[in-house]
Amino acid sequence: MAQVKRKVLIPVDGSEDSQGAFDFYIDNLMKKDDEVEILHIQHTPHLSVLSLHDPMNIPVEEWSHKLKDEVKKSQALIAHYEMLCEQKHLAKKSLLGSGKPGEAICEKAKECGADMIVMGSRGQNAVRRTFVGSVSDYVLHHAHIPITIVPRK
User: Fold this and answer.
1) The UspA domain covers which part of the protein (predicted)?
2) Contact between 39 and 67 (Cβ < 8 Å)
3) Cα 19 to Cα 94: distance, rounded to the nearest angstrom
């Protein structure tokens, strides 16, 4: 009987936590037939505050430059993880999303048919976590597949 490939979704954001989660996957969970889905939720820059004195002067050019910078950062981040997958001879796909990270991760996991999610914890302090919550906490409570949350070392 042929073994079905396992799809592992690994959200990355350029932090040490997401790199740690990727490394944990490689060192402890990786199977040679896995397909790794590298997901980055791109930050969309906000428009600067509009002037009340000149409400028609929308800083579109400034926003466009910020957006291009974010796209370049996303491409570099994805390329980094693609290279790491290639070094381990892992099948990989790169996914880009936008929106609220927790919601986007759960949505992409469902869309791509992921079998599990491996992600870092943000290591937020107790006060911030209480009032804001965390992406990993959201995913833990809303994804319907196994999740490995890797704590900060």
Assistant:
1) 6-151
2) no
3) 16
Burial class (CB in 10 A: 0-12, 13-18, 19+), 4: exposed
Name the phi and psi angles at 128, rounded to 5.
-65, -40
Residue 107 belongs to some domain of the structure? yes
Which range of residues forms the domain containing residue 131?
A: 6-42+74-150
152 with 123: CB under 8 angstroms? yes
Q: Is 125 exposed, middle or buried (0-12, 13-18, 19+ CB in 10 A)?
A: exposed
Q: How far apart are CA 73 and CA 66, in angstroms?
A: 11
Report pLDDT digits (tens) over 60-94. Answer: 787 788 889 989 999 999 999 999 999 999 999 99
Q: Are strands 35-42 and 7-11 parallel, antiparallel or unpaired?
A: parallel
CA distance linking residue 120 with residue 15, whole number of Å? 9
- Compute, in degrees rounded to 10, the torsion defined by CA atoms 24, 28, 32, 37: -30
Q: pTM of whole model > 0.90? A: no
Which CATH number is 117's domain given? 3.40.50.620
